[in-house]
C-alpha cells in the first residue's frame, strides 16, 4: 500500500467529520429505536434500529445480519477486522435474536443497510433489558437501606415528652 500525504487542513476536515459522526452516534443512542419497517424513511441519517436477526451470511471479513422479513428488511454489515472485538462467530451469536444497532442508514442497490465497524454500536436487546433491570434492583436496594437507616435513627431518638 502506498502512503498518502494529507495536508493539515485535510486532516482537520477529517477530524471534524469524525467528531460530527461520533456526536451523531451518541445522540442516536439516546433516541428510542426505530423499527425495521420504517428504516427506509431514515436513509442518510444516524439512528438506533431494533429488530430480529432472521438470516446471516459471512463473506470474508464481512458478516451480514438481516433484520426483519421480506419485503421489509435491513441488512446490517459487521466489518470484522483482524483485531476485532465482535463476538466469535457473530453470524451464529446474533441469529434469531433481537438486536439494537446504532449507525447510519444507507441504501445500496435497493437494499436498506447499515455498516457497523465498532461492536459498541450493536447489542442484544435481552442484555440491555437485563442491565436496566439490574440497575433498577440496585437502586431499590439502596433506597431500602436508606429507609432502614432512617427507621433506626428515628427509633434511637427519644420520644418527646408531653
What does this structure look like?
Helix content is 37%, strand content 30%. The protein is of the alpha+beta class and 162 residues long. A five-stranded mixed beta barrel has the order 2-3-4-6-5. Mean pLDDT is 81; it is low at 17-25.
Any guess at the CATH architecture of one domain? Beta Barrel
Mean pLDDT: 81
Proportion of strand residues = 25-35%
CATH superfamily of one domain: Nucleic acid-binding proteins
CATH class of one domain: Mainly Beta
Query: What name is given to the CATH topology of one domain?
Result: OB fold (Dihydrolipoamide Acetyltransferase, E2P)
Number of strands: 7
Distance between the first and last residues' Cα: 91 Å
Quick structural overview:
The protein is an alpha+beta fold.
Short descriptors:
single chain, 162 residues, alpha+beta, OB fold (Dihydrolipoamide Acetyltransferase, E2P), five-stranded mixed beta barrel, 3 helices
Strand and helix layout:
Layout: H1 8-30, E1 34-35, E2 46-59, E3 62-67, E4 74-79, H2 90-94, E5 98-108, E6 111-116, E7 122-124, H3 125-156
Parallel strand pairs: 1-2, 4-6
Antiparallel strand pairs: 2-3, 2-5, 3-4, 5-6, 5-7
Amino acid at each position: 500500500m502506498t502512503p498518502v500525504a494529507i495536508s493539515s487542513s485535510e486532516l482537520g476536515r477529517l477530524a471534524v467529520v469524525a467528531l460530527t459522526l461520533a456526536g451523531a452516534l451518541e445522540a442516536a443512542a439516546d433516541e428510542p429505536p426505530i423499527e425495521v419497517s420504517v428504516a427506509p424513511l431514515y436513509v442518510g441519517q444516524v439512528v438506533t434500529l431494533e429488530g430480529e436477526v432472521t438470516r446471516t451470511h459471512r463473506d470474508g471479513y464481512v458478516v451480514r445480519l438481516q433484520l426483519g422479513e421480506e419485503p421489509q428488511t435491513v441488512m446490517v454489515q459487521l466489518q470484522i477486522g483482524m483485531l476485532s472485538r465482535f463476538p466469535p462467530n457473530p453470524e451464529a451469536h446474533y441469529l434469531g435474536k433481537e438486536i439494537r444497532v446504532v449507525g447510519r442508514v444507507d441504501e445500496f442497490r435497493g437494499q436498506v443497510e447499515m455498516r457497523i465497524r465498532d461492536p459498541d454500536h450493536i447489542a442484544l436487546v435481552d442484555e440491555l433489558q437485563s442491565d436496566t433491570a439490574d440497575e433498577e434492583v440496585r437502586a431499590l436496594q439502596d433506597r431500602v437501606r436508606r429507609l432502614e437507616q432512617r427507621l433506626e435513627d428515628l427509633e434511637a431518638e427519644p420520644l418527646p415528652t408531653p
